[in-house]
Specification:
- The chain is mostly helical and 167 residues long.
- It has helices at residues 8-30, 43-58, 65-85, 104-123, 131-166, and strands at 34-35, 88-91, 98-101.
- A three-stranded antiparallel beta sheet has the order 1-3-2, with helices on one face.
- The longest helix is centred in the C-terminal third of the chain and has 36 residues, at 131-166.
- The mean pLDDT is 83.
């Protein structure tokens, strides 16, 4: 019995359905502010950094691929910094508790990145791109995005706390 490959449009349809469900859940959660804990902002980038190092250790890039990774890290960091600027951070004047609330613009930003990633995943071989290089570039890009997002939020929230303490 031969397995027939899944038509490309079905893959796109499944991807669209998953993204739609995730977006619906995310939009629902965006309506309320969540507690922002400065002391925990480093955890996600640290875990993802270890994962990235492990992936690069398992399949080390060679030659010009390092340049692509450096560009991906820088681009991810720049976009992560911009994404964090869309996040609304508030401080309770009485308790100095920090809260964060993602903006719809930040959500649209993430959707565009997901669609770009999906497009590259399916079209990389047709474009003559090495799938391992594409994977490494996307992983390093995500590391830059996550680390810069958390760093910008940390710095902005710390400034807000300093200003609130000075008043």
């Amino acid at each position: 019995m031969h397995a027939h490959p899944m038509p490309a449009w079905i893959s796109y349809l499944i991807t669209a359905a998953v993204i739609g469900i995730v977006l619906m859940l995310r939009v629902r959660g965006m309506r309320r502010a969540r507690r922002l804990r400065l002391e925990q902002l480093w955890i996600v980038p640290a875990i993802y950094g270890v994962l990235t190092l492990w992936i690069l250790y398992q399949f080390p890039p060679h030659g010009a691929k390092w340049l692509w990774l450096a560009v991906a890290l820088a681009l991810g960091a720049a976009l992560g910094w911009r994404r964090a600027a869309y996040m609304r951070i508030t401080i309770d004047p009485a308790t100095h508790a920090l809260n964060q609330q993602a903006s719809p613009a930040a959500l649209v930003f993430i959707v565009v990145l997901i669609l770009l990633r999906q497009g590259l995943r399916y079209e990389a071989p047709a474009l003559g791109l090495d799938i391992m290089t594409v994977t490494d570039v996307l992983v390093v890009f995500a590391l830059g995005l996550l680390a810069a997002t958390r760093a910008e939020m940390f710095l902005r929230a710390r400034r807000m706390l300093a200003m609130a303490g000075a008043v």
